Amino acid sequence: MDNEVKILTDEELIAGIVLNNRQANFEILYKRYHAKVLDKCYGLVKNSSLAKELAEDIFSKTYEKIATFQNRSSFSSWLFSLTYNHCIDYLRKKKKLNYPEWTRANEIPEIIDESEEDLESIDYENVMEIFELIHPEEKALLLMKYQDNLSIKTIAQSLRISDDAAKMRLKRARSRVIFLYKEKFQKK
Length: 188
Description:
This protein is an all-alpha fold. The chain has a domain at 97-188: Orthogonal Bundle (Arc Repressor Mutant, subunit A). It contains ten helices and no strands. α3 (23-45) crosses α5, α8 crosses α10 (163-185) and α9 crosses α10 (163-185). The termini are far apart.
């Protein structure tokens, strides 16, 4: 089985699940991606037992929906999209986090200088600190785009918004991080 983990592609494993009901193939996918999904869940909810619970829910949902995977993107992109979507839905429901209301209550100046020269000395740990100050949906957007390299279309589908709304929210999230970073760490 260890050789199968290395030899078979995600797509071949999925075909075996869908066409031949090979549950062992799903176990291989689970082993391949569980740690990454768990890490993404923890990054959003900051609670390890809750992250484990959410990760298990995500893999249950993945198993139920595996037949709907259409190879339009990589399996990992599809899985990570499900992960972010599930975690954001959880946070919206449990913490009653309404993104438009939160944005209105946490406005930033309209014009943010996003020039590279001011951001050359950005410290990763400081950025992670700023990430804890922004809305989970903005954090997820930035992680989807810059960590997981998901397309705008995939991000939009994951958040159930239009492509234009995804672009606008991504720009707003970037601006908010830059603004907060400069406010906190680059005061002159």
